[in-house]
What we know:
alpha+beta, eight-stranded mixed sheet, 8 helices, 39% helix, globular
Amino acid sequence: MTDIVRAAASDVPALAAVLASAYAEDPVWSWLMPHDRDRRLRLLFTAHLAQQVPAGRVWTDPDRTVAAVWAEPGQWKLPASYLLRNAGTLLRAARTQLPRTALRLFALEHRHPADPAHWYVEYIGTHADARGTGRGSRVLGGLLERADADGRPVFLESSNRRNLTFYERHGFAVHEEMTFRSGPPMWSMWRRETGRRPSGSPEREIPGERY
């Protein structure tokens, strides 16, 4: 997996910028952060990446144009200590949209499946300047190879309808279109069949996934 690099602490600012670019036009993030989105997303992702990088859960490419945040089976739920430690950052990033952001977070946690044990793609995105290069697909493929070796399925939530076909080419299938009391829908997806290679037309680089 020479196209995949495990992110280091020094990569956090660059990868926060990658995810901010990837989610700049995402329907859910646009609803959560209608104004000053780039700065607020960078703030939020900087804090989150700083927590996940030491655990080895952030992968990128050699040019740092892709960022993928994932969790191994049984490790998807953020501990209360994480939420407390990052409460100030969440408040500064969400601002007046904090109630709707918190409600969406809690709703997703409540709907997250406990079984079967699975790998979880929390965020994945490609910088706008690198879309169409296949780099995001290669990083995602590296994670899928690891899940295949473990013999476990992979789960994710898509916050953008136009990314569904990309995931379907990688073996994912829509499990549910999730609607909420307010805000755009999301889609839960499972990849249960291991060892499946991408199929179909040339791959379009995903802007960003999970809100």
